[in-house]
Amino acid sequence: MTDRAGAGRFVGRNRRTKEDRRFIAGLGRYVADIRVPDLKHVALLTSPHASARIVSIDARAALALDGVYAVLTGDELAEATNSLQHGVEAPNIIWRPLAQNVVRYAGEWVAAVVADNRYIAEDAIELIEVDYEVLPAVVDPEDAFASAELLVHPDHGDNILFHRKFVWGGVDDDFAAADHSLNFRVKWGRNSTVPIETFGVVSHWDPGQEMLDVWASVQMPKYADQIAEALRLPGNQIRVHYDVDVGGSYGVKRGLKHAVLTGYLARKLGCPVRLLEDRLENMSGGDAHGPDRIFDVDVAFDGDGTVRSMRMRALDDCGAYPGRAPLQLGKPVGSIVGPYKIGSVAYEAISVCTNKTGQVAVRGFGQAPTNVAIERMMDRVADYLKLDRLDLRRRNFIQSAEFPYTIPSGTEYDSGDYQTVEAKARALSDYDALIAERDTLRGSGSLAGIGVATCLEPGGGNAAFEPLFNPKNDTTTWMESCTVKVDRLGTVTALICTSSSGQGHQTLVATVVGEILEIDPADIRVVHSDSLSSLPGNSPVASRMAIMLGGAAQRAAEMLRERLMTIAAHNLERDEADLVYADGAIHARDDDAAKLDWKQLIRICHGQYHLMPPGMEPGLQASYTMQVPNGGTMPTADGRVQMYPCFSFETHITLVTVDPGTGKVAIPRYFIVHDCGTVISPAIVKGMLLGGIAHGIGAALYEKFEYDESGQHLSGTFMDYLLPSSMEIPDVQMDEHCTPSPLTPLGQKGAGEAGYMGSPAAVVSAVNDALAPHGLTAESLPIKLGTLSDMLRTLDGKD
Amino acid sequence: MKAAAFDFVQPSSLDEACEHLSRAADDPQIIAGGQSLMPMLAMRLVRPGLVIDINKIETLSGVVEQDGGVTIGACTRQTDAETSPVVSGRLPLLRKALRFVGHDQTRNRGTIGGSLAHADPSAEICLTAVTLGAKITLTSAQGQRDLAASDFILGPMTTAREENEILTAVSFPIWAADGRVGTGFQEVSSRQSDFAIVAAAAQVAIDDDGICRRAAVAVANATPAPIRLTAVEDGLVGQEPTAAVVDPLLPSLESVLEPEADLHASGTARIHIAKTLVKRAILEATEDAAADD
Amino acid sequence: MTDSRPKTTVSMTINGAQITADVEPRMTLLDFLRDELDLTGTHTGCEHGVCGACSVLLNDVPIRSCLMLAVQANGERLTTVEGLSDPDGSLSLVQDCFWETHALQCGYCTPGMLIAAQALLQRNPDPSREDIREAISGNLCRCTGYGQIIEAIELAADRLNQRTGKAAR
Questions:
Q1: Which of these, A480, A498, A487, A504, lies nearest to A553 by C-alpha position?
Q2: Which residue in chain C is spatially nearest to B7 when comparing CA positions?
Q3: What is the pTM (predicted TM-score) of this model?
Q4: Rounded CA separation B103/C119 (Å)
Q5: What is this model's ipTM?
Q6: In order of start, what are the domains of chain B with their CATH numbers?
Q7: Is A23 touching C (CB cutoff 8 A)?
Q8: Which end of chain C has a smaller Cβ tally under 10 Å, C or N?
């Protein structure tokens, strides 16, 4: 096999990961495995109503139960803590861990019990008596948008958290000049990443150190800072331990209210307190739902298939408290035209509150739903013009020679070769044969359809949606840091500033550092530090760690290597340019014997100050904090901004069948070609890609948090919220391509959201292609079996 | 999700179990495989005072052929029934049905009797029992009685079992040789191995001329309890069960079925699916009979 | 622990070791393994029998430990993920294949997957891809999309067959 593009000695090679061994041996250390003496356990009383006034709470019987230490309600907690922060400016929306006076969704926390174990805590929960006055609930997002009377937060004045119409370019002119236009609506259902591990946190107030220790299954930027602010503590009195293995997150493991609640309880009670959500608490009360979005799209295009302009209205149902959810309408601004040359765009982003569980960041931060809308637009244009769906896309691609390419909303795409990736996908799928296979299936009475999606994955996470969506926020850096040090014995350790939830950061950092120092990554230790001992970081969000953590680690390792070269030049009395670094030793280019080996170099750094160049700092360590490439600027007045720096690309092609007798969808074939620039760890990227595809199939066909008209949540268990199993996920045939990013040291781009960016769009495309001959469309995700069955029932006797 | 407190006994004899069960003041609840009961305990949807574990009563496990039928002890694991040569040879419909019950891990623990006693309207074992007219044996301190499956299962999670009774066995009839017997079992769920949205079972006896001499056809999860489709059965007997014969029989389902909507499918969708699956089950059974040596 | 609720004494063999303990009847086998015995390799996912993260072997067959009471395990023989490795800590064949193909990311479902895989290969040393798919269908994984897990089990079956002298598949 030929070398992968960009491959080095370790980079791009098939190597075993550093993390897997401990997980396989059952030796992972998740938050539920943290053992602290005298640990007490929390259970939660949650609201049975979507909207109600809390008339009274009587906890006397619960408190009297043997083994119960405390029952905490909203009033006490509100007195002692600050409210939790939102991503948008909404000062009159007060968000607290425990409801105070009013409950705003079914599942909202009303009271917390601390007991000797979780069994007793749940016994006590049952003994708390709450008197509610049920109020009308806001359930439908369009109603929420329109209503001036029925408000989730009356003090806010309306239900609108964010509303802005961006216009980039001559949209009206382009529509007027185009040959055709069409419009349609597509809905992305309320789903989420739903990790198999729920959220958990252990908080422990150490009275000697006067410090709150927090172990959490968290993936959240600035977690410690936000806990400190809510608990009214100085930042350096909170220590969040990043060496906790996180059992999946994909964006949602935020758990701020969990940490504030347990932090308060731990201080109050003087003992460590643990809250592990159970599945019911997680699904209804964890504030971990994802985007729930209605897209209305108008598209203007010419008869040859050239798409000229697009108007998109996106209405997102945030649930009861905004958190960072409205910002998920902001990230797609940076790739609002996908991989296509569309000259002008109008984008109306609306985020509303309803009486539902709150939203949080979900894999892609709003990009996957937006990609569905963009891709359905391309499908519809192709269908209207009776053009092949892939051909239509190809006609509209930004050309490889046009990079860097600035889209109407002001973001510059770094690099891409969409035509080549699409061509590889066409070849991989044997596209013409696939069409023939579909037609054969149709001929034999099946409903069969081909789906395609050509989608971008923005990576690198300059969170420019913050200043774009919140005038009071002027954040223009989402830095990431790494420290690399070599100890006196010569072993290499890297410190990273985040916890990991399966992304393989230890492997990433060891691979990159090993590449630079020419040391086997297996011998390099990567340590997850804690919030007090680490440098600034922003956690593994935004498909950014290969770029940002990989970049920081690489630069820190290069700094070490540069320092070793300086030391060698000093001792070997040569110019650095005349020296060669090889396998951790340095020798003169013209004299192998003029050499300092690794041990000698380390000995100089750690002991022989007299051999160091004058003025050099002793020891051997380097830290680097990386700014996001292309980042650092504020949005323009008309909302143009450099959102993310790097753009990965993927082409999906799939064949599905729909059983006309039952509505059951099967996916016999699935192909993907993926381009994330230089691949650092092939097995990890492959896993991300396959996992993302599976997650997207769930979003397209199975997963939805359902609510009834009264705002009751109906999908609180794994029997109602359907995560795809191995039987629903097809074998995926894959190929890759490498268009290096010019912005990153190795040419890497993001891959953490790979697969998920395009698979929902591809599957919906395929199902609609299967329905098309019968004049049917399905534009509301997930497209459930029951929905299809109801649709196909009308075909009975017709075919 | 932790169960409320209860006492626990693990009797080794049926008499002992019946005695525990007769103490109504203890609010007793039987546990066998626990695959349905344990989630209900965890969610505190049931809160017994006493849990009686009948797994250690050896006489409640096993598959035996007797009196022209197959009797399966209530505590027989679903996996053990599935791999039983008696079931394979004599109750192929049950064997087919068991492939659709849960997953390896739940079949290894879940029991035949537990599924019947729980009476989930989508349950494959209940559907098979109703299709074949199985006999349910209930035992109490006062004695023993048998009920036809269709008289035992009254509705969703509702059976004719009295509080002091234990479901101890189920007996499936073996069809006498009316011809070649074939079976069909069809099910649709959102994901493989989920609870059925609708399931259909058919067993037919086909004579040498290809004519159906006997038919049993039933549907699950389109009525509160599995239901035999007698009009369809009557329409098959005396006919060669081809698609052309089956199709005109399907509209009769509309008057019999009364499906409820849930998150996964509407009532009308369920009727559509039921028609499809009934047809497929009958055709599968007919083909199976033809292939049977 | 101030818990004064009545307890029952149970004895069982876990990963080859005989243990005896007092448990409250309502405690699940899962909680017992994790919280009383500190065998934290077995994971809590849903507590209602769907996700499979809590899978263990009961007398060599896989079951869900959230759907069994600890008291019901009295006198039984259990194997958890900790018992799959050799006593010296070296990985079993299946475990090693999971590492080789990177059949995991966050690792949370992994112990349950390994239990399902181990059980499959014990009863069917030469499984088809569909057999593998079905054997792990009761174990939800949110990271991998299952592809590299299926590859790992195929690889393990191949190696197992090579080891036992059978022709490779």
A1: A480
A2: C25
A3: 0.97
A4: 13
A5: 0.97
A6: 7-52 (3.30.43), 63-173 (3.30.465.10), 180-291 (3.30.390.50)
A7: yes
A8: N
